[in-house]
Every structure is written in structure tokens, then in C-alpha cells.
Design a protein that fits this description.
Elements: H1 7-29, H2 42-71, H3 78-87, H4 96-111, H5 118-127, H6 129-144
Length: 145
């Protein structure tokens, strides 16, 4: 296999993902997601979408980095990076459906933003932040394997 991933890069991206998830959970706990989507709440609306999108991008960045270092691979896209890691038993295959949903959400936010329903965004914050943690822990393990 390849070389060791950069521990500083892994720690930096992991910290970023955890900060975004903690902020989102804080908004939900404070009731700031009530009325999400209301144009009067545009700063919260944008912040929530941005936090989700960039947290996913940070996870993808980690997957690319680990695939490049561990597998000497240059995956063609984010999902392929996770798939290649899973194929090399460096990432749990059972997390791939969650990764696909995360990447799909990010693609919709960027390219089909008018089709992203507010209720879907709120549901992700309230119910799916554990997926971010599971994917991140698996990437951290892959990065130090």
C-alpha cells in the first residue's frame, strides 16, 4: 500500500466537522430551527445549509486524502474515494449508503438548490448528525491504520 496520511490534515478536518455538527445541534436545541425556511430567518437558513454542505465536503476531502496516501489512488469523485477505501477494508461498507445520501444532499444544495426542501434540511439536523460522526470516526481510523 501507500504512505501515511497527514495527521495534521486529518485532525484539522475532523475538528471542522465536529464544530459544524455541534453548532447545528446547538441551533436545534435552542429552538432556532423552528420556522426554518422563513425568509426572515435567512441568516440561519444559509448557515445551516452551509454547515451541512461544508461538513460533507470536509469528509470527502479526508476520503480523497486517505485514498491518495493509503492506496496511491486518485478517485474520480467523492463517492469513489469512500468506495475504494471500503474495497480495501479501510472504511466500513455498511456506511456507504449514508455517504451516498450525504454527497447527494451536497450536490442538490450546490446544483439544484431550489429543490432542497426545508423539512429535509431540518430532519438531517435533528436525526442524521450521528451519521457524520460515524463516517468521521471511520475515516479517522482509516487515516491512522
Amino acid at each position: 500500500m501507500g504512505s501515511a496520511p497527514d495527521p495534521g490534515r486529518i485532525a484539522n478536518r475532523a475538528r471542522y466537522v465536529r464544530e459544524q455538527i455541534d453548532r447545528l445541534r446547538g441551533l436545534a436545541a435552542a429552538g432556532r430551527l423552528e420556522g426554518f425556511g422563513d425568509p426572515e430567518n435567512w441568516t440561519v437558513n444559509g448557515a445551516v445549509r452551509h454547515a451541512l454542505q461544508t461538513a460533507v465536503e470536509a469528509l470527502i476531502d479526508l476520503a480523497y486524502h486517505i485514498a491518495a496516501k493509503r492506496l496511491n489512488a486518485a478517485p474520480p469523485d467523492g463517492y469513489a474515494a469512500f468506495s475504494q477505501l471500503a474495497g480495501a477494508d479501510l472504511f466500513p461498507k455498511d456506511l456507504l449508503p449514508q455517504v451516498a445520501r450525504m454527497i447527494g444532499f451536497t450536490n442538490r444544495v450546490v446544483h439544484r438548490y431550489l429543490e432542497v426542501e426545508d423539512t429535509h434540511v431540518v430532519r438531517i439536523v435533528r436525526e442524521d448528525t450521528g451519521d457524520f460522526e460515524a463516517v468521521l470516526r471511520a475515516l479517522e481510523a482509516a487515516g491512522t491504520a
